[in-house]
Structure formats: C-alpha cells, structure tokens
C-alpha cells in the first residue's frame, strides 16, 4: 500500500485498501499524479499552478524547489526556440529576467544554474557541452518531478519516499558488500517484487508517475 500510494498507483492503492479493509485517500494521489504528468510533459507552469492550489506553502518554504521549477519552465521555453530557429527568444529572456534573475542575484547556486541555462541560447544546439546537453535531457523533468513528489508528501506528513525503496537500497548495499568480500552468491539475485505488484496493476488502467508511464526501474 505504501509503495502504491507514494508512486502514484491510485487505482491499485484503492484496490489494495479495499481488500485489506483500510482507508485509501485516492484524491490526494490523483492530485500528485496530475502534477507529475504536467512536469513529465514539460509544462512546469501548470505544475506550479497546481502545487499552489494544493498547498502554496510548499513553494514558499522550499526556495530551491521553486527555483528548479521556474528553471525547468525556462528550459522548455528555450527548447521551443531551439526547435524553431525562427522563433523569437524574447519570451525566454523576459521570463528569465522577471522570474529567475531576482532570485539568482541573492543566491550563488541559483546564479550558476541560470547562467548555464541561458548559455543554451548562445551555443549551437549540436555543439553543446555535456552539462548543457543534460538540461535538455528528459531526465531533468523526471528529477524535478521526483523532488516535487517528495515535497508534497512531506507537506502532508508522509514519508518522502516509499519505505520499500529504502529497503531495496539497503539490500543492494548488502549485496555489493558481500560480493566485495567474495561471498558465494548467485550471479543475479532478483527482488521477487514483480509478481506481487503485477497482481494489483494487472487489468487496472492506472496513472503511473514514474517517467510519465514508464515502468518503475525498481521492479523491472
């Protein structure tokens, strides 16, 4: 139940809760899913609006997260310009000047991030340094979406991630340590999670927050 709730499997969580006779707040899961979907689609503006509707205190209290969302919005504006060379870059410049520059002026990390982002408008798209290419990689959307999900959960008094993820990390650490010590282990040790999770996902058209519909790498 904990995993389904944290990862946005609203219908699976509801089915599990019904079978276990426990309460499931599907509404709060769907709100997070809507925000995640917007971010994975590159629509940071909609995501920010929905976050503020849900709890405006989240972004008021977490300045780095708010800046990351605004920066993602700027990246998407620049991405549009790069796809269409004839597009006017003024909207991107105006957005950066109005929403990011004031924040960057008082924070060195913000300033560095803004400078890197604006460099996308200077260098040719086919000759970008790796750190600039990373800004246009879809993983930036995923990273910001993950931070948002954890922030929302924390604001609701929940753990920022499903407990099973911490257990998986602990299990992986133990396996790495055992292999370094030359313990006799099978070549591959599966997690044995997929059958159980599939039993709840199978036949359920659920909204999945991982990668906007991608299978969670933890169980694939």
Overall pLDDT, averaged?
79
Q: Please work out how many helical segments DSSP would assign.
A: 12
Distance, first to last CA: 18 Å
- Sheet of most strands: none
Give the strand content.
Answer: under 5%
Helix-strand string: HHHHHHHHHHHH
Structural class by SSE content: mainly alpha
- Radius of gyration using CA atoms only: 20 Å
Q: Tell me the overall shape.
A: globular
The low-confidence parts are 195-204, 210-215
What is the count of β-strands?
A: 0
Which range best describes the helical content: under 10%, 10-25%, 25-40%, 40-55%, 55-70% or over 70%? Answer: 55-70%
Sequence-ordered SSE layout with sheet pairings:
Blueprint: H1 2-7, H2 10-20, H3 26-40, H4 44-54, H5 57-61, H6 63-83, H7 90-104, H8 108-118, H9 130-136, H10 139-155, H11 163-180, H12 194-201
What is the structure about, briefly put?
The chain has 220 residues and is mainly α. It has helices at 2-7, 10-20, 26-40, 44-54, 57-61, 63-83, 90-104, 108-118, 130-136, 139-155, 163-180, 194-201.
What does this structure look like?
The structure is a single chain. This protein is mainly alpha-helical and 220 residues long. Helix content is 66%, strand content 0%. Helix 3 (26-40) packs antiparallel against helix 10 (139-155). The longest helix is centred in the first third of the chain and has 21 residues, at 63-83. The radius of gyration is 20 Å and the shape is globular. The two termini are 18 Å apart.
